[in-house]
Specification:
Blueprint: H1 2-12, H2 17-29, H3 33-42, E1 56-63, E2 69-74, H4 77-85, E3 98-106, H5 109-121, H6 125-131
Antiparallel strand pairs: 1-2, 1-3
Helix pairs in contact: 1-2
């Protein structure tokens, strides 16, 4: 991810931003649906630059079946909650339905994952809940 951010920053300074960014990103990351989404968030269809900052979220879900918690990271909470409740997540499939308890917004996905790892290492429910308050 850091490589992609550095490439994006360097390309923004250059005149051929569209071609350079797209070619470099494809070369280093491979083609994917996520690339297309990112590309369209940076450019409108005329090729004009529009820079949007993607936000990431550390979210806390609670199972309505057994009151267990699930922590995750996403860039779209509404979509991710729908995926959990429709059975698209292997771990959460058996404990549906899920309710969103809280979330924290981050500018950096690495910061969101860092806090997710830290909290997943803790087993006490109170500690996890207190982090979101």
């Amino acid at each position: 991810m850091e490589l992609a951010v550095n490439q994006l920053a360097s390309c923004l300074r250059g005149p051929d931003f569209t071609e350079i960014f797209f070619e470099n990103f494809l070369k280093n990351r491979g083609s994917s649906e996520n690339l297309k989404i990112l590309f369209h968030k940076i450019f409108d269809f005329s090729g004009v630059r529009i820079l949007t900052i993607m936000k990431y979220y550390l979210y806390l879900l609670e199972s309505q079946i057994d009151k267990s918690y699930y922590l995750g990271v996403t860039n779209n909470i509404k979509r991710r909650l729908k995926e959990h409740n429709s059975g698209h997540s292997k771990y959460t499939k058996s404990k549906r339905p899920w309710k969103l308890i809280d979330f924290i917004e981050y500018d950096s996905i690495s910061e969101a994952y860092k806090n997710e790892r830290m909290l997943k290492q803790k087993k006490k429910r109170e500690l996890v809940r207190s982090f979101f308050k």
